[in-house]
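Record format v2
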Amino acid sequence: EDKVVQSPLSLVVHEGDTVTLNCSYEVTNFRSLLWYKQEKKAPTFLFMLTSSGIEKKSGRLSSILDKKELFSILNITATQTGDSAVYLCAVDSGGGADGLTFGKGTHLIIQP
Amino acid sequence: EPEVTQTPSHQVTQMGQEVILRCVPISNHLYFYWYRQILGQKVEFLVSFYNNEISEKSEIFDDQFSVERPDGSNFTLKIRSTKLEDSAMYFCASSEVGRSPYNEQFFGPGTRLTVL
């Protein structure tokens, strides 16, 4: 059975801090790993990673994948209160039109 | 920016009743999905749909569930006889490409289903 494990499950930091969220996976046929941000409702897409060692960056957020060690990290620098959300890691292991396997998420709270 | 939309945002129903949850995927997307998230638990895959048929389904997607694309824009999830444990947030998602290494799925805002 495919498995995605995220850590920590929750994290409270102060505005301006840098955070690192972790995602490890065990899947039979890895295609890609995706990060989503879930605030009140819908997960919104952040990154998709398919190749090891290539950092994806968007503003203060960045992510990298290690396919040998089977994990990914999501970094957020200079955190703001608007970064408070649940960050979901998901793996596509079926190839395309198949469902994603999600982790439980990391609940990140940024205190002013 | 194009987005996936879902209606209703909240549905309350009695146990045993049928419900239909509606989704309008992004217009040029070809692959459609339903997921659910029980309160406090992780997002779980239910079913994927391509070319007017189910592509894959999870073990959650049993005979009480069905999906349909009744016209060129809507994608529906029907639960025939709801149970208390069907209470969850149901997310629709769509993606432009399917059977390739790239599967960027975009999610709708969800329908919160409450079964009493």
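Chain B touches chain A at residues 4, 31, 33, 35, 41-48, 50, 55-56, 58, 89, 91, 95, 97-110 (CB under 8 Å).
The mean pLDDT of chain B is 90.
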